[in-house]
TrEMBL record:
Belongs to the ABC transporter superfamily. The lineage of its organism: Bacteria, Bacillati, Bacillota, Bacilli, Bacillales. This is Macrolide export ATP-binding/permease protein MacB. Pfam families: ABC_tran. GO terms for molecular function: ATP binding; ATP hydrolysis activity; transmembrane transporter activity. Keywords: ATP-binding, Hydrolase, Nucleotide-binding, Transport. It comes from Listeria fleischmannii subsp. fleischmannii.
C-alpha cells in the first residue's frame, strides 16, 4: 500500500509460562498510512496498551511481523531498536515523562541534542513547534512551574520535533481537564493536517477518539471492528464511537 507507515501482521503476545499462559494479543493485523490519525479503544484489559507497547517496540511480540516505514522490527537487535525508537518514533504518555531538572525548552529539544543537530536548526525547529502548541512564552520555566496542559503540550512538542515517522500516544488526555484536552487534540489534528504527522493513539475517551479519522476497537486481545469518520461531523462520529463501545461493554467518557 502506498505511503504505508505501520503494518502489523498476525501479531500475538502471550504472557506467563506453561500451565498459566495469558494471550494478551491474538493474531492482530492492522495498517496505518502516512498522515493518518488513528485511535485504539476497548474495555479495560482488552489489550490496548499491550498493543501500543508491542507496535512501538517497547515490548516484543510472541509472534507476528511489524514494519514501521518499511523497517522490520524483528530484524533489529536491542541496540538498533533503541536507536530506531529515538530517531524514528515519537512518544506521548499520560504522565508527561518530562525531566524536572530541565527547562521546558531543554525538554523539547533533548532528542535533537542527543542526535547532535546543529544549534541553529534546533532553534528554528523549537520556535516553530513551540509557537504552534503555545509553549514558546514558557520556554524558560521548569515543569514544576507550569500547568498539566502545558506539560502535555511540551511532551507533544518533544515527540514531534524530530519529525518522526510515527507518533504513539498512550492516553495523552487522561490527566487533563476538558479545556486542556481540547487544546491538545486540536494541536494533534493541526500537526496531522499541516505536517502530515502520523498518530496512533490509545484512549478510553470517546471525546478524544472523535478527533481521529479512524477508530480501531480491541476486545479480548482481538481486533473487533473499526469505524471511519469520513465526511461526517465530529459530533456524529463521537456518537458512532459511543454506540460501538456500548456493544463492546467498554467504559467511556460520554461528555461531548
Amino acid at each position: 500500500m502506498e505511503n504505508l507507515i505501520l503494518k502489523a501482521h498476525k501479531v500475538r503476545k502471550v504472557y506467563g509460562s506453561k500451565g498459566s499462559l495469558f494471550p494478551a494479543l491474538n493474531s492482530i493485523s492492522l495498517e496505518v498510512r502516512k498522515g493518518e490519525f488513528v485511535s485504539v479503544m476497548g474495555p479495560s484489559g482488552a489489550g490496548k496498551s499491550t498493543l501500543l507497547n508491542v507496535l512501538s517496540s517497547i515490548d516484543s511480540p510472541t509472534s507476528g511481523e511489524i514494519e514501521i516505514d518499511g523497517n522490520s522490527l524483528s530484524d533489529m537487535r536491542q541496540k538498533e531498536l533503541a536507536m530506531f525508537r529515538r530517531d524514528q518514533l515519537g512518544f506521548i504518555f499520560q504522565d508527561y515523562n518530562l525531566l524536572e531538572t530541565m527547562s521546558i525548552k531543554d525538554n523539547v529539544v533533548l532528542p535533537l541534542s542527543l542526535n547532535r543537530v546543529k544549534p541553529f536548526e534546533i532553534e528554528v525547529r523549537f520556535e516553530e513547534i513551540a509557537r504552534q502548541f503555545g509553549i514558546f512564552d514558557i520556554r524558560d520555566k521548569f515543569p514544576s512551574e507550569v500547568s498539566g496542559g502545558q506539560k502535555q503540550r511540551t511532551a507533544v512538542c518533544r515527540a514531534m520535533i524530530t519529525n518522526p515517522a510515527l507518533i504513539f500516544a498512550d492516553e495523552p488526555t487522561g490527566a487533563l481537564d476538558s479545556k486542556a484536552a481540547t487544546n491538545l487534540l486540536e494541536g494533534l489534528v493541526q500537526a496531522k493536517e499541516h505536517k502530515q504527522a502520523t498518530i496512533l493513539m490509545v484512549t478510553h475517551d470517546a471525546f478524544a477518539a472523535s478527533y481521529s479519522e479512524r477508530v480501531l476497537f480491541i476486545k479480548d486481545g482481538e481486533l473487533y471492528t473499526e469505524i471511519h469518520r469520513g465526511k461526517t461531523t465530529r459530533k456524529h462520529f463521537f456518537q458512532k464511537i459511543l454506540d460501538v463501545l456500548a456493544m463492546l461493554g467498554g467504559e467511556a467518557d460520554d461528555t461531548f
